[in-house]
Design a protein that fits this description.
Elements lengths: L9 H10 L5 H25 L11 H16 L7
């Protein structure tokens, strides 16, 4: 594990001290950084994939859903014995 020195404003530090016990601060900050990095990665992924979905060759969603459901219903029907 590495140590990191950061500078934060006095009001922020006071709030951190007020809400987070001393023995929990490192874990609190680790979790805060993890959450922020996760959101950043999600935003970057969204930007990278922006425009990759196109509705040009797709039917109306209601039509697609109806087709899916019809297929489910056909597969769910018991086969008749003896044809």
């Amino acid at each position: 594990m590495a140590r990191l020195s950061v500078s934060i404003s006095d009001p922020f530090l006071e709030e951190l001290r007020r809400f987070v016990p001393d023995e929990d601060r490192s874990q609190f900050l680790i979790e805060a950084v993890q959450e922020k990095l996760s959101r950043l990665k999600q935003r970057l992924a969204l930007r990278a994939t922006a425009g990759s979905w196109s509705n040009a060759d797709r039917d109306d969603p209601a039509v697609e859903i109806r087709r899916l459901r019809e297929g489910w219903e056909q597969r769910a029907r018991p086969e008749r014995e003896g044809g």
